[in-house]
Design a protein that fits this description.
Low-confidence stretches: 1-16, 18-37
Number of helices: 6
Number of strands: 10
Mean pLDDT: 75
Distance between the termini: 62 Å
Largest sheet: 10 strands, mixed
Structural class: alpha+beta
Strand content: 25-35%
Shape: elongated
Helix content: 25-40%
């Protein structure tokens, strides 16, 4: 059988672009063809449409694709157009690729610590990439779905928020506001502190939640030594016990 690919240039370009950019099940290559009716292949697509949308009738499929229910009668008598086939193929590809699109990454710096006490120099820049799903990030960690860094806490100055050895999730792109817990780099020493900016006295104060520790106060040119690495979104303990 000779397949008819003589569709208008706009649709043809869209088809070619779609196959390059997304992963479409291979059998659709032979189903997306001209507007000439092919009952056998259209029936295959009809059945796949109903399974895909989890409906029982072609009228329901038409609604799912954004057409009127009466369009189903036209499809039965004249067959599917290339535009309809392309639209369904695109939706199918989106479903296939969704698991990959719903993944973000955590850069886990196993040997990097943020001192929650007196500070620590961090020269180790090796990290592991950990893919994380949207549901875990939004429902378990309760943070926006995006990429983050993960580093460990050293010290007890941020207790009870974070314990020594906890891991914190750092948002490198978040806007930092007064009262946020941040990762701050001061002259190469990395701290996790509560950020407070005093615009009147032109100073920045990095405070601890543990009252045993003194605040770090930066004034004038000292502020130039401060680099806010990111905002701490959450913390968790990775020293779990496996039973």
């Amino acid at each position: 059988m000779r397949y008819n690919f003589f569709v208008d240039l706009k649709v043809l370009y869209s088809i070619l672009t779609l196959f390059v950019k997304v992963k479409i099940p291979y059998f659709y290559i032979f189903l997306i063809k001209g507007d000439k009716m092919d009952n056998q292949k259209d029936k295959i697509i009809f059945e796949n449409m109903k399974k895909f949308f989890k409906v029982d009738s072609l009228e329901d499929v038409a609604e799912k694709l954004g057409y009127s229910r009466n369009t189903a009668a036209t499809w039965r008598s004249k067959g599917l157009t290339s535009t309809v086939k392309l639209k369904f193929a695109s939706l199918s590809a989106d479903k296939v690729n969704k698991p990959y699109n719903d993944k973000a990454s955590l850069r886990y710096f196993e040997n990097i610590t943020a001192s929650a006490g007196y500070g620590s120099n961090n020269d180790e820049q090796n990290y592991s990439i950990i893919p994380v799903g949207r549901d875990f990030m939004e429902q378990v960690l309760k943070i926006p779905f995006k990429n983050y860094d993960v580093i460990k806490v050293f010290g007890d100055s941020m207790e009870p928020f974070a314990q020594d050895g906890d891991a914190v999730v750092v948002d490198l792109d978040a806007e930092v506001k007064n009262g946020d817990v941040v990762i701050a780099n001061i002259g190469g020493d990395v701290y996790m502190k509560k950020f407070l900016r005093d615009a009147i006295h032109k100073e920045v104060k990095l405070t601890s939640l543990n009252s045993f520790y003194q605040d770090i106060i930066l004034k004038g040119e000292e502020i130039n030594q401060l680099k806010i690495v990111g905002k701490v979104r959450c913390k968790f303990n990775i020293n779990m016990k496996v039973f």
